[in-house]
Amino acid sequence: MIEDPGLQIDAVIDSAVALHGSRPDSLIAVMQVVNGGLGYLPREALYRISERLKIPSSEVYHVATFYNAFSLTPKGRHSVKVCLGTACHVRGAPRILDEIRRCLEIESGETTPDMEYTLETVNCIGACALGPVVVIDQHYYRAEPGKVDKLFKAFADSGLTVEEVRAKQEIPAEEVVQSRFDSGKVSVTVCGGTGCQAYGCEAIAIGIEEELVRAGVREKVRFVQTGCRGFCEKGPIIVVQPENLFYQQVTLADVDEIVLKSVLGGQAVERLLYRLPGTETTVLHEEDIPFYAHQDRIIFGDNGRISPQIIEDYLVHCNGYEALRKALQMNPDSIIDEITRSGLRGRGGGGFPTGLKWATCRKAHGEPKYVICNADEGDPGAYMDRSLLEGNPHRVLEGMIIGAYAIGANEGYVYVRNEYPLAVKHIGIAINQAREKGFLGRNILNSGFDFDVKIARGGGAFVCGESTALMASLEGRAGEPRAKYIHTVDSGLWGKPSNLNNVETWANVPFIITNGADWYASIGTEGSKGTKIFSLVGKVLNTGLVEVPMGVTLRKLIFDVGGGIPDGKRFKAVQTGGPSGGCLPESLLDLKIDFDELYNAGSMMGSGGLIVMDETSCMVDVARYFLNFLSDESCGKCVPCREGIAAMFNILTDICEGRGTKEHMPLLQELAEATAQGSLCALGGSAANPVLSTLRYFPEEYRAHIEEHKCPAKVCKALITFNILADNCTGCAACVRKCPQKVISGKKKEAHVIDQSGCIKCGVCFDTCRFQAIEVE
Amino acid sequence: MKGIIVVKVDRCLGCKSCEIACAVERSRSKVLSEAIHEHPAPPKGIWVEKGNTFVTPLQCRQCEDAPCLTVCPTHALHRDDRQSPVLIDGGLCVGCQLCVLACPFGVIRMDDDLHAIIKCDQCSQRVSDGETPACVASCLTGALEFKRIEDVLQEKKEAYLLTIERSAETREL
Amino acid sequence: MKETKNIIFTLDGREAEARPDETVLSVAKRLGVDIPALCHHQAVTSYGACRLCVVEVKKGKRTRIVTACIYIPADGDVVETGNERVNKLRRIILELLLARCPEVDLIRSLAGQYGVDASSRFRVSGSAGAGERCIICGLCVRVCAEVMGQHAIGYANRGGKRMIATPFETQTEDCIGCGACVFVCPTNALHLEDIGGKRVMKELYTSMPMMKCTGCGREFATEKQIEKVRHCLPAAHDKIAMCPSCRRAAFRDAAGQALI
Predict the structure, then answer these.
(1) Can you tell me the ipTM of this complex?
(2) Smallest Cβ distance to B98: which of C228, C237, C249?
(3) Residue A242, preceding peptide bond in cis (omega within 30° of 0)
(4) Would you kindly state where each structural domain of chain C is located, as residue ranges?
């Protein structure tokens, strides 16, 4: 019997309204529930939501078509999402996308005729170390060019349970030494960050816990699934105390040995230790690994010590809420003074002095005031905020409460990007626990100060990282920015004074209160105090999240912490600041990481994404990539951004496809200036930066494309050819089988040939050949 | 002077001098010989219409409780007070034509060529300069007059008294 | 604290006074200074989308570009509405608009005014091209929402795919066929036609029945328009279902009664 679809729709809407209310600002949350419940938003549902919430259907339609989270057409049973973030881009995401498109025979945005798979692209999933990332349903995979079928097979296999996997292993006898456990110092921490999740840390954690239970020591061991530990390249990561043994790239098969040898026996499992690159030298402890040794993990370090879902961990291991206690004894103006003197500047990208922002908001007129946490981390290649919010939500919360007290706000919001469900979950748990303990709610710690926080999920739009667009989204509208001639601290959310800060900015606050402004100001440079968490991704050996004091050079970060460029390639450029930033060349490697230094070099700090590129990256292609991203994410309201970015993108496409002319370079310059000055918000205002910085530092690459019709990095398809080197070709025909266009031909055991007229430059033959017989020119 | 345009129907010949004068007043050149060549054509706010046995000019009555003003969503239609003419601020008009549909007399209209709502505004500029509205000034027979309301009332009272007096005289004779 | 006294600033070299909360555009209009502003209309809120009304504001050492339709001057601001920097920016914006809507007369004439070649050097959004007339100024949307209260049309999509649309680009019951959107559209991108007893709003995929005049039988307004007028008039009158010509005829006859 077919259920009346109208009844089903009404039921889902009822549940959505029960959860989120039926106010105008409930719209996005209600639509998310309905979209989630029905798999998409049928027309009827949109009209009924419009009636129920008393919002015009034209407005509901705008919101439905503005945000990525909503689909107006039914989806397939499984979603296949290909990440097109910058880090994934430089690691070959476009090739992966092409292969999947050929494999499923659909375009991005479409669903296979049998309704099995829907293919979509995402402008950064936030698992950059794993790139190039493909997510099928909730499963994350590192895709390999030429091996896309392996991906789908792995997905099909992922239905296996832990029990089934473990049943295949032998279980040795154990010996338990009780005295070892009486000290209470034995602990096992399993990293639960996104990268490790993708590597299967959940199964490993279950495995460890089961093994501890079987050994009869579960009650005596502190077993914690922590937040991200930062060394995402080497996940899954496990640390065993008290010997402080750091294990990396752990698999399910290693679980028994870890428990037997390390937890019970206090001995190291050699093969799981970190090895210095190019050597057999192992390192036992985290702090001795160069990746960690060169960092200063003041804010981020706690991620590895606690479970984000247990407030007691935060209280015990992180001096939790002591800063709040101290702050509540202080005068609000003194708190603001402390933050101002510390020199803390916004960590979201703007770098605005936080103390000044708080002071202005405090002085502003209007009630109620709001504090907002901007967790809409949208810069492709950046996932620090995600890991902070997922791994140590209480720290962020504590910062917000202190800020709210200083400013005089009693209400707060945490606005989390739609693509971060785990962060939403963890901050939700944290808020509930904080309420129970009296750190949130009425009369906090008997201070007379009331403050509470709500969580809002983004709808899937990069532009909502911009403060006025974020506030529009909180109000239930499409994320269109407005002019900031009147600042949001004076008139923001619902026209009231609103103080918005980034996740990392809030996380810095408790430290400043506890240790004082002078301590904080002693770290970093003259203009940029404190530390900064960066996501070091792309063509770098040690991809992951790193924290260093401001003032560290790019060279140190990329080579000492990052371990340099893998596969013997040369450093070419590092992209900082996301789509609003720029690409810096080798000559600037000794630049100190500092807000003003980066800005003067034609880039910016941004939220902290650092994408390293080697000689296999084409800088013109990178500029084009960013413009493509921005044209997709632009809200489209103002002419310079909407049309200007499209115009620049079309010019860059012409250049990449061999149609570049001499006039294009000055034309790009003109457009860049106009977009920068004429746009309504910073998205358009900084859209030209990738173009300007690549023009400034890599002009010869543009000239090669325009004048010589060559792509030196051998990336731009229209300007390269794949040839078979007859001398090396054994005629094995492996490439023939893989070639999607079937343009390779030849006799068995004889040198083959590629028919250029049909070649689509997909590169699969190049990846397949084991004899170095394919050359790219 | 605050006045109303009064029509003496029996005096109207249907010559349409008032229509022409109104259009010329609203033209750019303010001169008939040039006004007739202007594009778009200058509009008129007065209609001369034939009844069965009469002809009469029709224009906006500047109703005290003007429905057009009540209905206008942008306050493009506005007036200084209930005795002053209803004027249009073209910059505020959005062309919704609610006024056109609200007017019981059909004397406010949308001129598509001019992209504007047109109605009689009693030539407010001329009146503040001490002149009479253009239609009144052009009327050769005195069918159109511009008078103060009190004066119109006074005239009607006197005319009525006269009829009473005349009928009394007739009875006497 | 809300400003209660007027603001004194400099506009193109001369002293100007602004009421509290008055924008530069409004002051400029009063003083006869012409600033192009395609997405602006007095009857609706300012939107700042076309960016043509950009002006340069200098305060102390700080200079910035702002849109005159939204920016409220502060005491001592030095505003220039047509200096080289501003005009250069306007030219690019016009050239971008030309690339999007090469056939729209208003854009062509404005471009000509600023010395921009009619054949734009740019290629813009894929959805635009020959025949595109809409510049997404949003006047239609705002008029329908803020003035008429109907909210029949809105925006859809994002970025280069942004467009004006009715929900699902299909018939909307919220449209009353008043034509205000057509009236305020600066580029004639919207059209209204009365065909076969129906009012057709082509670009809105919407049509609705018209009302026949109780006098002459001609169709003169949509049923929804009449409903709205009835709703807005506190005192009903018996001529609502008549066309203006028939209303005038009744008026004429009433005037004729005076003769008797």
Answers:
(1) 0.95
(2) C228
(3) yes
(4) 7-82, 139-259
